[in-house]
UniProtKB/TrEMBL annotation:
Domain GHMP kinase C-terminal: 218-283
Protein name (record): 4-diphosphocytidyl-2-C-methyl-D-erythritol kinase
Family (UniProt): Belongs to the GHMP kinase family. IspE subfamily.
Domain GHMP kinase N-terminal: 75-150
Record's catalysed reaction(s): 4-CDP-2-C-methyl-D-erythritol + ATP = 4-CDP-2-C-methyl-D-erythritol 2-phosphate + ADP + H(+)
Any one of the GO BP annotations: isopentenyl diphosphate biosynthetic process, methylerythritol 4-phosphate pathway
UniProt cross-references to NCBIfam families, sorted A to Z: ispE (TIGR00154), PRK14608.1 (NF011202)
Residues that coordinate or bind ATP: P103, V104, A105, S106, G107, I108, G109, G110, G111, S112, A113
GO function terms (MF aspect): 4-(cytidine 5'-diphospho)-2-C-methyl-D-erythritol kinase activity; ATP binding
Active site: K18, D145
Keywords in alphabetical order: ATP-binding, Isoprene biosynthesis, Kinase, Nucleotide-binding, Transferase
Pathway of action: Isoprenoid biosynthesis; isopentenyl diphosphate biosynthesis via DXP pathway; isopentenyl diphosphate from 1-deoxy-D-xylulose 5-phosphate: step 3/6
Pfam hit, one: GHMP_kinases_N
Amino acid sequence: MAASAGGALPLRTRARAKVNLDLRVLGRRPDGYHELESLVAFAGIGDELALDPGPSLSLTIAGPRAAGLEADDRNLVLRAARAFGQAFPGTHAGAFHLTKRLPVASGIGGGSADAAAALRLLARLNGIALSDPTLREVAAGVGADVPVCLESRARLMAGIGDRLGPALRLPSLFAVLVNPGVPVETVGVFRALGLAAGDRLLAAGGGLPALPTSAAELRAVLARSGNDLAVPAQRIAPEIGEVLERLAALPGSRLVRMSGSGATCFALFDDCVASAAAAKALARQRPEWWVRATLLR
Ligand SMILES: C[C@](O)(CO)[C@H](O)COP(=O)(O)OP(=O)(O)OC[C@H]1O[C@@H](n2ccc(N)nc2=O)[C@H](O)[C@@H]1O
Ligand SMILES: Nc1ncnc2c1ncn2[C@@H]1O[C@H](COP(=O)(O)OP(=O)(O)OP(=O)(O)O)[C@@H](O)[C@H]1O
């Protein structure tokens, strides 16, 4: 991208994929939203967002996953930027350019990561701290996953995504992420869970007993939990069943799970040699699927 009219180079940030390492649904609030508890990590892969500071707000989109994603007012980058402008009157914006690499509506929060990336760039441009309470409110107003994506650090997420624990230094996990190419809308998966508003099922488990010091220890902790949205998501997208089966059958696959509301699933491996070989083998089996080896941390 060329330098902006004022000579300043565009600001850039990576919008990393969010992965729910586990996810418990505790109940449904009277307003219809679901109370969750989830250990969230972030992948090395993601979209990229650039901001060329200037007088008017705009968005262009390119990249391998841009097809079908409109740069209109519904786009989460523009929604986040408008909400920022309303919360911080008189601040500067400019021309955003999004390179879309993550599959859309896939349970790894691509749109939320893009919205959070827009807020990070606007905060940097206008000298606002990421810890600013108004910025956090803006993030929560754009979407449930946006607050955790603001810093994109591993942490426990609770409430409807608005209660965040401290950033965690998790052991790095060697993962393969797989999406079968079926978009799954989050709202439908929560609906398929079938809870009535006001249903309160479980008390919060309180998260990790102690911070695991090795990937094997973390995997052992994760093996005791799951993703409560996997069963309703499979009713909507039965392909998820095949993704989980194929991931589990790969040599060296240690733990297999769906992220968020699906359909992206992940498998964990001992090292990058095993995860790279597994990704290659699965891409050969199912060339039309989105398959990526990456580090989660
Ligand atoms: C499933 C997760 O991805 C886990 O990280 C998130 O909870 C979903 O986050 P998100 O995609 O940012 O969700 P939003 O765009 O805010 O909400 C989409 C819809 O999902 C439902 N929703 C979302 C979050 C939540 N805790 N309870 C809900 O019931 C609501 O019907 C909402 O209208
Ligand atoms: N920049 C964007 N990138 C992706 N989706 C966007 C964007 N802007 C708006 N959307 C819309 O937001 C919806 C959710 O997309 P997203 O890719 O964030 O889903 P997701 O990965 O399932 O999210 P989550 O894991 O947070 O539930 C889609 O219907 C999509 O059309």
